[in-house]
Amino acid sequence: MNVIHSRVFTDAIVARGLTKSFGGTRVLSGIDLTVPTGSLLALLGPNGSGKTTTVRILTTLLAPDGGTATVGGHDVTREGVAVRRTIGLTSQQATVDDLLTGRENLELFAGLYHLGGRRARRRAGELLERFDLAGAAERRVETYSGGMRRRLDLAASMVSAPPILFLDEPTTGLDPRSRAELWAVIRELLASGTTILLTTQYLEEADQLADRVVVINEGRVAADDSPAALKRQVGAERLVLRLSRAEDLPRAGTVLTGPSSPAAPSSFAAAPAGPGSPTDRELTLAVQDPDHLRRALDLLHRAGIAVEHVELRTPTLDDVFFELTAAAA
User: Fold this and answer.
1) Can you give 243-309 as a three-state secondary structure string?
2) Contact 314, 227 (CB under 8 A)
């Protein structure tokens, strides 16, 4: 039998003006965010931007210096016990025991939630099936792959069937196949009505899974909208040029954007290639007019800079992220 949470609320998570400092360092400077019930919000930001601090406050692991927050309708500072009964948390570090089997781990967590022996065994069996771990249920976790371990960790956070789930960078370090498997599990949880707040380093992950994206930069909310709307805000298409020689990259940026080149279109905005770029020879440019492609190639040709590959693509969340966090780079 699953634990039943009957409280009804429209917005599962609401934060207003959250602040937090450690010593003399201000980490959060007035964070506002809202997560409607049954949706997934992705929290993005550079390292040190305050993502994990925000999650720790919302899950009652850390007290804010200022501001308010409710989770499941409960105040995180005054109703901590009620909040913890409403949520599940998968942190960056796995919480499962390597020396126990998958089944033993889940039964242990069920015991911590005060489920009796029979109920604990039943719940563990349900979760092992749901997270595709039944075939490895009797194996020690130390024999699990990284993807299996993360699925077990996620299953452990779902023992009490919480309506609200916090996932703090759950796929970091996983290979692409394991990441895709965990995405499928997250989609299933979302489809079943679970509210999810996800922090991630992978912008593609946010693009694939999130209903809304909040970008935090230097302790403040830099953007809050749907992935599609954020990409529209960036506007211009992206021209990706892969040069034949890496040593030409700085000069190419100057040719296309520098003040010493009066022929360069003013709408060009050079940016570094995004994560996962196959080489260090790529230059990404924002272009407002398709004719800028011809003009860019002409400028590079006249400067004696050889281009190996040309691609014109629509903006991605990577572009949004770079644009919003450029000031802190």
Assistant:
1) ECCHHHHHHHHHHHHCCCCCCCCCCCCEEECCCCCCCCCEEEEEECCCHHHHHHHHHHHHCCCCEEE
2) no
- What ranges do the domains of the chain cover? 11-225, 235-328
Taking Cα atoms as reference points, which of 151, 149, 226, 141 lies closest to residue 189? 151
φ, ψ at 154 (rounded to 5°): -65, -40
pTM for this model (two decimals): 0.72
In contact, 198 and 41? CB cutoff 8 Å: yes
Report in angstroms the alpha-carbon separations of 30 from 47, 58, 196, 236: 18, 14, 22, 31
Q: Per-residue pLDDT for 164 more than 80? A: yes
Euclidean distance between CA atoms 87 and 211, whole angstroms = 19
DSSP bridge partners of 233: none
Residue-level pLDDT at 143? 96
| pLDDT value of position 178 | 82
Mean confidence (pLDDT) of the chain: 83
Rounded Cα distance, 41 and 209, in Å: 9
- Convert the pLDDT of each residue in 48-90 to its tens digit: 889 999 999 999 999 999 999 999 999 999 999 999 999 999 8
Give SS3 for 38. coil
- Do the beta carbons of residue 69 and residue 76 sit within 8 Å? yes
What would the CATH number be for the domain defined by 235-328? Answer: 3.30.70
Q: Domain 11-225 belongs to what topology?
A: Rossmann fold (3.40.50)
